[in-house]
Structure formats: structure tokens, C-alpha cells
Amino acid sequence: RDPSFDIEEIAHALGMMCRFNGHTRHFYSVAEHSVIVSLLMQELRLGDPWEGLFHDGVEAYIPDMVAGWKNECKGWKEFEGGVDASMRDQLHMPPSKTYGCQQADRIAFYIEYNYLTAPDKITHHHDGGSDDELQRIARKLIAEGWRTMNLYPKEATAAFLKRYNELGGVRHG
Fold first, then answer.
1. Helices (H), the chain
2. Alpha-carbon distance 75 to 54, whole Å?
3. What was the pLDDT predicted at 120?
4. Which region among 3-17, 45-59, 68-82 has the lowest average model confidence (pLDDT)?
5. Looking at the predicted structure, is the pLDDT value of residue 172 above 90?
6. 136-156 burial string, b = 16+ CB within 10 Å, else e?
7. Residue 168, class by beta-carbon neighbours within 10 Å (0-12 exposed, 13-18 middle, 19+ buried)?
8. Are 25 and 117 in contact (CB under 8 A)?
9. 86-to-33, 78, 168 alpha-carbon distances in Å
10. For residues 166 and 113, what is the distance between their CA atoms, to the nearest angstrom?
């Protein structure tokens, strides 16, 4: 039987969870990241902002692992993928992360990286491929005022739930 996913549980857990497994200068939640990805998808017309809000929802139930270590744990990606597929099905999202969501996630990464680890510059710190165009978009958005707010957990949870309601709320069965 597939697990059941609760929106308030997801919002709370992601609000309490520090992005990049805490490898940041200050607390920055997965919930705030999710709101930013959702807003980027809407602003840049990269697809359904609902997917952006829940793209890391599985982390509410299975904490993320730093990329290099994830590859070392046999079966981890398959297990995580199965839970993600169940969540995506219940929340009426595409069966896997869309290209538009991947782009918004990378742009958010560059915005976040600018504020959380390397002030005033975006470097080529990424896990492969050429992201020059996404970095250019992130620089433009930063110049326009896009940034992290570094919300406290309760604030991040509230921001997630507010965005959820803005997008029309319940989409699961």
C-alpha cells in the first residue's frame, strides 16, 4: 500500500529542514527553497508552479543526502524514487521532475548559492553540464531583487502553506 502524504506535515518538515544539509552560512529551509522554485516556474513560465512547490516534498519523509554520498548508498536512489513517485501520483504531478522544474531548481540553486555560500558571485559550483544560461538568468534575477529571506522554520512553513493556498490548495485524493 502506498503511503499517505499530508500537506501540513510536508510544510512543517520542510520548514524545519535546512537545505544543503546545513552546509550554509545560516539556516535556510527546504520549504523556502520550494516556494522560490514554485515562483520561478510561474515567473519564467517553466511549467506548473504546483510541481515546483512539491518537487522536494519527498524530503519531508526521507531526508536528502549530499550528492556525492547519495551515489555511494546502494539502493538509495531507487527507494527515494519510489516514494517520490507515490507522492507525485497522490499530488497529481508528472511522474518525474519536468525539464522546466529542473531548470527552476538550478536557477534557485544559483540564487541561493549567491546568498548562502559565496556572496556577490556565482561560480561554476555544480554537478556537471553547462549551466551558463541558467547562471545568466540567476544573475539577472538577483539584480532584479530575487534573494533568499532565510526565514525561521515557522515562517518558512507558513510561506509554504500560503503558496499552497495561492495555487488552489488540495489536488490530492
1. 7-16, 30-43, 49-54, 67-70, 76-90, 99-116, 132-143, 153-166
2. 23
3. 47
4. 68-82
5. no
6. ebbeebbeeebebebbebeeb
7. exposed
8. yes
9. 22, 12, 21
10. 27
- Name the CA dihedral angle for 69, 21, 35, 42, rounded to a multiple of 10 degrees: -30
Q: What are phi and psi of 18, to 5 degrees?
A: -85, 130
Q: What is the DSSP letter of 145?
A: T
Show the cell assigned to 79.
527507494
R_g over Cα of the chain: 15
CA distance linking residue 53 with residue 7, whole number of Å: 11
Neighbours of 161 (CB within 10 A): 19
Using CA atoms, how far residue 47 sits from 41, 51, 63, in Å, is: 6, 8, 26
pLDDT at residue 128 above 50?
no
Distance CA 38, CA 111 (A): 14
Chain-centre distance for alpha carbon 170:
19
SS (H, E, C) 5-26: CCHHHHHHHHHHCEHHHHCCCC
